[in-house]
Structures are given as C-alpha cells and as structure tokens.
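Section 3.1: Structural characterization of target chains.
Under the original work plan, the team committed to producing a structural model for every single-chain target entering the pipeline before any wet-lab resources were allocated. The record below documents one such target. The sequence was received from the expression subgroup and is listed exactly as submitted; it comprises 419 residues.
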Amino acid sequence: MASLLPRGQTIRMTNEPALPQGGQNQIQLPPVDFDKVINRRRTGSLKFDSAPRRGYPEEVLPLWVADMDFPAAPPILEAMQERLVHGIFGYTEPWDAYYESIVGWWRDNHAYALQKEWILESPGVVFSISLAIKAFTKPGDGVLIQAPVYHPFFSVIEQNNRKLVVNPLKYEGRDYLMDFEDFQDKVEKENVKLFILCSPHNPVGRVWSPRELQRIGNICQKNGVVVVSDEIHCDITAPGFRHCVFAGMSPSCQDIAVTLTAPTKTFNLSGVQISHAFIANEQLRAAWLAEKKASGYDEPNAFGLVACQAAYEKGRPWLDRLQRYINDNENYVNEYLKSYIHGVYPVQRQGTYLLWLDCWASGYSSKEFNQRLIERGRVWLYDGIAFGAEGEGFQRLNLACPRETLAEAMTRMSALYAR
C-alpha cells in the first residue's frame, strides 16, 4: 500500500487505503503481558463501570461479560495508530486487501473457502441476527434457539414479533448434547422458518461436531429453514477441539447458511464495531442486504476495518499465546474448585474463553448464589438464569483476565463456599 504524505510525495490512485507505513510516527509496542493487571475503571467500560447502575457495589470484581482484560495485539494497535496519524476519518469503505485478509483467515484457520462477494459488513452480530429475522421470516413465524444460550437471542426474536421456539440442550454428565428428536418436532410443528445456531456455544462451551452440524442441517434443509450460525467465538477452542464451520459441512448446508462472525471476540475489539455475515446463496444475500439498507447502516467504522485486517494478517502469534494463557487459567480454576470450593463444578470447556459452572450442589438457586457472591464476596459472575430457564443452577465465568485477578476471585468465592 502507498505511504501517505510528506515532502512532495505523489498520491497513488488505488482501491486500497493509503496509510502510513512507519517512520518517526510509528509506535513501537512491546509484546502483550497477559499477567499485567490494567485499571479499566472510569474508562466507560461496561464490564467495570456499570455495577452501580445495576445496584451492585462499585468495587465488585467483574468476571461476567465476554470482554477480555488484555490489550489488543501489538500489530493491531500499530495499524490503528498509523491510521490515527493520518488524521482524516471520513466515510470509509472496505478495500481489496481487507477482504483478502478475511478470506485468508478463514481458509488457513478454518479450512473454509470464502468468496469476496459473500462477505457483508455489519456493526455487530446481534444487529445481523435482527436483519436476518426480518429478511427471512414474517411476524408470527417461529424462530428456534437452543437454550441455555446467549441472552440477546431471546430478546431480538421477541422484539421483532416472532414466535420464540426453544429446543433445550440436554445436560448429561456435565456435558451438553443436542436433542435432535425435539429439534425436528419443533421445526415441523411450530412453523419454524429460522434457526439461530450458536457455534461454539455460549455459554456452555460446546464445539459441535461435523456429524451434529450436518444432522441439524439436513433437518433444516428438508423443512425450508434458514440457519443463522453465530460463530463469533470460533477462533478460541480448548486443546483437542476444532471449530467446524456450519456452512462448510456440505453444499446443502452452505445454501441455507448465514454465517455471522467477527474479529472482536478473538482479539478483544468489541468497541470498534465490526462484524461480518458470510452468505453464499444469492437470494438470501440479496434479502439480507435489503434489510441492511432499510436499517440505515452504511459505511463501517474506519478503525474497525483497519483493526480487522491487521488482526487477520498478523494476529495469529498473539492468539496462540492467548489460547495457552486461557487454557492455563481454566486449569487453575478447575484445580481450585476441586480443592477449596464446595458444590461448584466446571462443565468441560471445548470452545470460547468462558467457563460454565454447575452450582446445583451448592444448595443455592442461581439468583441466590449470584447475589451472595456479589454482595458478600464482591465477585460478579453471570447468573445462568440470564441464558434462559435452562440456565438455572449455573454461573458463567470469564477466563480472559490476568491470573492475579482470577486468583483473587477464587479466594473471595472460597470464603463463601469453602469445602
């Protein structure tokens, strides 16, 4: 790409942004220290600064929302700094190298062959789900989800005047399975036109197998159901597990799929508001784009585009280190729970950086457990009931924080629930 600016340099006509490529303005950043505790209070952080608005103690230690306490990878920060130095932030549209970075990431990391034309920008995955609901269903149509599941799935269905249809996951031996018989029955009897798949599943941490994905794909294809596959957590998996793209299972799956993803969960970039929908089917793509146009959303965030390209081109080494750190954090929590805390058992994490905790044996309801931990222990986990009635008896814990933070949270929890 051309380097902008000084001293008589001519401007090269190109469809790629001309950004600074170094020199005196280039910021030099050290590798990220995942152990370093960074003060995020008074920064407008939803995670750290929203407690008083919810009636919680201001100093509560938050391990609830899916938001990391780590700085973004140095290549991302460097790219954003270079864009900042340019100093002009007008309307911005994607460029070729941006699309190439996305295609390359999904090819190299998920063995999925994207085409540029399938890639559509959006400010966020929930926004994209809302567009899909309006594009592919009518008021009163059934939209199916698998609870316990990410709580905005419930509200975005109901607020768009669609019928919420729940296919509960089966919890067996601290593992979650799909109930295919109930799934098919609900699809056939509840006028289901859209299925929102969560893959990897938030909050239970399942990475769905090719066999599971193909089976639900077959049911949906047979019954004319569009599958919106939320794969935003796809880049973070536990050792021994690999994410499988629903649309990559077969041509029939790809033909009914709207794949939603983003670099934001992987690289801690939620605030820059960039995500993508991948839609191979031309009719589905046209319908989704029509709803996007009707929404009024147009050019994406300039910094989001720059951050995304840098992440996908240069962020893999940082992500590898992050994965190891999260794995170590999970092992630490599992051992601590086993040794010191009564009635709390981790569900095996296969994907995401979130740990789903089975608290049934604690003797408290989800609400009681959560409130006691907040009010007496000053630790804020996500109450499982927020993910549907099927989340009763569970709590969700965010592992993406420095070990010191996690250790303090475990110490506070053990003071309330000691063995």
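Residues 39 and 69 are 9 Å apart (CA to CA).
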